[in-house]
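Trying the structure run again after the queue cleared.
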Amino acid sequence: MQLDIFEHSRDVVLRNATIDALRLRDAGACARAIAALATEYGADPLLPAFGLLCEKLHAPIPAPLAREAAVALVQEIAGAVTTAAHLVFGKSAPAWLAPIWAELAAGIVQYPFDPDYEKTHAAALLLRAGRWTEAATSIE
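Done. Tokens:
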């Protein structure tokens, strides 16, 4: 069997369109790209990861955010969302996740440090976002 690069590359084109939309944080383009990929390649192994990351683009984090909601979001982002980002972006995943961590930090900036919720202090989230100066300021 001979490989036809045009016939066998459509899935790559659709995957790349989804990745480009995610990189641009364009929720609409991301949803369209995922729909096209799902229609033509419904068994693509990256579809669940794409869907989860696109969902994060559609769901902005409210500010202020209740502590319980912040705890749940930290667990979700540190778990399933981070895993999906690593599947899609590899070593670039932390850079893609940084705005999400920063947005979450902005939603809980009003909370003082609580040792029972140390992972949900704004400083911890800002460190995950790579915003060292802002993290130091929130500690002060």
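The mean pLDDT is 91. Worth checking whether this holds up in the mutant runs.
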